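Handout for the seminar on molecular recognition.
Each group receives one record of this type.
Step one: identify the two inputs.
Step two: read the structure output and locate the region that could contact adenosine-5'-triphosphate.
Step three: write two sentences on what you found, then compare them with the reference statements printed after the record.
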Amino acid sequence: MLDVSGLVADYGAVRALDQVDLKVTRGSITAVLGANGAGKTTLLRTLSGLHRPREGSVSLDGKDITRLAPEDLVRLGVAHVPEGRGVIAELTVAENLRLGGLWRRDRRWLRTGAEEMYELFPPLADRRNQRAEALSGGERQMLAIGRALMSRPDLLLLDEPSLGLAPRVAARIVAVLRTLRAESGLTLLLVEQNAATALSVADRAVVLYLGRKVADDTADTLAADDRVRRAYLEV
Ligand code: ATP
């Protein structure tokens, strides 16, 4: 589904991604692992059109999407849940969800989609008329994911969904990601610093180190690879 080839991204003189290749198959969950500064966030930002790559190409189902703007990528089915949640604090839960589905111009979906999100994330249903600023960290993450899902993506890019959450809350989010993949065939690219969480849910994983891809294998193989764990994942 997604084919990334020779991707290079810089911030001025800092090379954040260096010749990264990545293939993601439809309906799979791929984890992107690595320590601080490895380039994980930059990879997602480049894939969602927020950062322009210097070199390389990205294709989605065979179509070149390398330099498309974020709004065009959303129309093609790519949604991004940024690090730090990215919900609008002053708007209510319902308004945030609506915002995620607005470009579809499908009034019925705005309503039925929101109901689907409340089923997926029951804590949001109880708080639908409260401002996002009143939510806990876990609920904000649920809302951020819900808002992205309102665009009905084929590919969901998730940046550190479990960051700062209690293990129980993180586990709940992970369970929803599994459900989504199983029930709707959604394809997920999941950035995580917590390798254990990510490897427990992913089919495949890649490890980035200083912008380079240093491992690319099934999640089970990587989870069992002490060398990779010790060298690159700080565990
Ligand atoms: P983290 O978990 O800390 O977010 P990461 O693996 O997501 O780490 P990136 O945020 O992609 O890593 O950063 C990759 C490299 O690019 C790092 O060396 C970082 O310092 C640098 N970098 C990231 N954002 C910027 C920026 N806006 N300006 C300059 N350098 C940046």
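Reference statements: Strands lie at 2-11, 14-24, 29-33, 55-60, 63-64, 78-81, 155-159, 187-192, 204-209, 212-218. The pocket of adenosine-5'-triphosphate is lined by residues 11, 14, 16, 34, 36-42, 193 (CB under 6 Å).
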